[in-house]
């Protein structure tokens, strides 16, 4: 009997916190999403799945999904190869490697807000970036980084990359350190070139780390909010709206709580579906997945 | 022809200059924006406007002194610290107790419960934000540090439990048996033996929870309207839009707001890096 009491005592606080402030709000969001509701008064205007049709059929939300997907794809195509390449190069006995690790990782510990403000400052029209480009004779490359609808998403991607790439590099370096150097040497003794050894011995062994990185990167890209909100508010003309900024915009700026909740549920389902599928098909091979 | 050991060494060395080049590039891209902000804080707005790329001439410390001399920056700092300490204490305290129950007790549904907590990793705060906001309004926690700290602790629980439980599972049963023989109750074992033994994992989750809270933006944005309650990230973003004409001052303010995070990071780099790479490896 005391054992039960102990268990209740030990698990109680965590459960209250977790259910009360994580699970319940998400469940309640699903409930709100069925109503047309402004956040005040009682829920009377039941619209069923109406909000969902509006969300999924809306042009702005569709473009928000597209923007998230662009960031997902760019991360995989641009960040991943760069991270792996840099990690491979840094995985040698370079002088000052620990200092280097510190520097590479520094942006990751800055808050998203600070990062966004730093980049707002250096991207000001005629500011640091523009002047640096023209002093290299690259006038032609100067754009309205945050005001041109065609460029803004790429600019934000660069900022996001700056902030998060260090995390990927550190993760991959940790993975590389788990691979014994003897394997590489054995491959070399068998006549493999450095490239072949990397390609056929090191990269496959790095697989689990890369798969975790992909998982975290995709989930992060689907949920990106802070940097976009501070730098552009999703603008100009919704050119950089993401699912999360769309949600906050409709929920808190326009008080469309029912509609905003439907957006939240859709965002959640997308992340959850990705996690399940990824877990099923990609992470299954790894003995210890993050979500096991 | 046989490849000899010196060949291999030569081959590996031939890539070394490339390694240094990559390192230099990475450091440059990372550091230049930071340096621009830090050094720009020592210039006047007129200097920055006249030549965005450039050294201070002369160096001025007025921007920094003005910010350090006024109360705004310190208030943001204090608010961030209060919230982060409460959120961390709650997350680590509740997480350690739950981790203990989930690792050293056997009961029905234990794995399911652990699974439930770990699935929480997937719940972004944004998804819960609307109901959470209404809930906080209802219990009167808007404009209250607890209104930020409590939900932050709740959202930090999954990663805390995910790191603590495996660690506590690996502490051998013999240790617990010995403690029981010496007359310790289960809770006594938890408090006097398991927690001290779990210090490495505990310090990792402490740092993680603290950094998460310290950097949080969305929740403080929703909960606080009154500037005197703002945390540092919220303050930096607001300061930037309020003083948009005074670039040098924003640069100095942004620099000062980076100092605590970078300082803690330099001191606790191993914990943070180890914790993050450890946590994703399960």
Give a structural overview.
- The complex is a heterodimer of chains A (292) and B (282).
- Chain A is built from 12 helices and no strands.
- Chain A has 292 residues and is mainly alpha-helical.
- Chain A has one domain: MetI-like fold (Orthogonal Bundle).
- The model of chain A is unreliable at 287-292 (pLDDT under 50).
- Chain B is mainly α and 282 residues long.
- Chain B folds into 2 domains: 5-62, no CATH class; 71-280, MetI-like fold.
- Chain B is built from 14 helices and no strands.
- The longest helix of chain B has 34 residues, at 71-104.
- Chains A and B meet through helix 1, helix 3, helix 4, helix 5 and helix 6 of A and helix 1, helix 2, helix 5, helix 6 and helix 7 of B.
Q: Which short descriptors sum up this protein?
A:
heterodimer, A: 292 residues, mainly alpha, 12 helices, globular, B: 282 residues, MetI-like fold, 78% helix
CATH topology of chain A: the name is: MetI-like fold
* Rg from Cα of chain B: 25 Å
Cα distance spanning the termini of chain A: 31 Å
Percent range of helical residues of chain A:
over 70%
Q: Note the overall shape of chain A.
A: globular
What fraction strand of chain B?
under 5%
Give start-end ranges of low-pLDDT stretches of chain B: none
Task: Report the total helices of chain B.
Answer: 14
Order of helices and strands of chain A: HHHHHHHHHHHH
Name of the CATH class of the largest domain in chain B: Mainly Alpha
């Amino acid at each position: 009997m005391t054992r039960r009491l102990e268990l209740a005592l030990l698990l109680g606080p965590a459960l209250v916190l977790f259910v009360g402030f994580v699970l319940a709000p998400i469940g309640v969001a699903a409930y709100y999403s069925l109503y047309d509701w402004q956040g005040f008064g009682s829920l009377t205007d039941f619209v069923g799945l109406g909000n969902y049709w509006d969300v999924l059929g809306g042009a702005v939300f569709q473009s928000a999904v597209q923007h998230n997907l662009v960031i997902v794809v760019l991360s995989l195509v641009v960040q991943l190869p760069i991270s792996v390449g840099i990690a491979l190069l840094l995985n040698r006995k370079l002088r000052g490697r620990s200092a280097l690790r510190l520097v590479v990782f520094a942006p990751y510990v800055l808050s998203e807000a600070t990062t966004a403000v730093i980049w707002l400052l250096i991207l000001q029209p005629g500011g640091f970036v523009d002047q640096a480009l023209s002093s290299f004779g690259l006038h032609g490359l100067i754009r309205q980084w945050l005001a041109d609808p065609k460029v803004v998403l790429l600019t934000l991607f660069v900022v996001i990359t700056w902030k998060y790439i260090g995390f990927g590099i550190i993760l991959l370096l940790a993975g590389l350190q788990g691979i014994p150097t003897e394997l590489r040497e054995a491959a070399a003794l068998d006549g493999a070139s450095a490239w072949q050894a990397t390609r056929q011995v090191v990269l496959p062994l790095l697989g689990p780390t890369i798969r975790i990185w992909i998982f975290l990167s995709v989930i992060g890209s689907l949920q990106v909010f802070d940097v976009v909100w501070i730098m552009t508010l999703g603008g100009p003309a919704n050119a950089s709206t993401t699912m999360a900024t769309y949600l906050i915009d409709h929920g808190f700026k326009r008080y469309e709580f029912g509609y905003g909740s439907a957006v939240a549920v859709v965002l959640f389902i997308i992340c959850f579906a990705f996690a399940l599928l990824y877990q099923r098909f990609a992470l299954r091979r790894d003995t210890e997945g993050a979500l096991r | 022809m046989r490849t000899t050991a010196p060949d291999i060494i030569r081959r590996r060395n031939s890539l070394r200059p490339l390694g240094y080049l990559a390192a230099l590039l990475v450091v440059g891209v990372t550091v230049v924006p930071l340096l621009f902000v830090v050094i720009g804080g020592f210039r006047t707005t007129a200097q920055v406007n006249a030549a965005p790329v450039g050294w201070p001439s002369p160096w001025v410390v007025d921007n920094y002194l003005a910010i350090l001399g006024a109360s705004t920056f310190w208030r943001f700092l204090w608010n961030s610290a209060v919230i982060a300490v409460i959120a961390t204490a709650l997350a680590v305290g509740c997480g350690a107790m739950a981790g203990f129950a989930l690792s050293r007790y056997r009961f029905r549904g234990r794995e399911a419960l652990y699974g439930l907590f770990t699935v929480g990793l997937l719940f972004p705060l944004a998804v819960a934000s609307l109901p959470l906001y209404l809930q906080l309004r209802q219990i009167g926690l808007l404009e209250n540090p607890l209104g930020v700290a409590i939900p932050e602790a709740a959202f930090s629980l999954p990663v805390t439990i995910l790191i603590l439980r495996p660690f506590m599972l690996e502490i051998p049963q013999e240790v617990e048996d010995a403690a029981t023989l010496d007359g310790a109750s289960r809770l006594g074992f938890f408090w006097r033996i398991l927690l001290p033994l779990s210090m490495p994992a505990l310090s990792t989750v402490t740092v993680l929870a603290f950094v998460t809270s310290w950097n949080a933006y969305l929740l403080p944005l929703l909960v606080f309207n009154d500037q005197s309650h703002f945390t540092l990230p919220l303050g930096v973003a607001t300061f930037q839009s309020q003083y948009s004409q005074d670039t040098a001052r924003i640069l100095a303010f942004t620099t000062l707001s980076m100092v605590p995070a970078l300082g803690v990071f330099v001191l606790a780099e191993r914990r943070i890096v180890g914790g993050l790479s450890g946590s994703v490896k399960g």
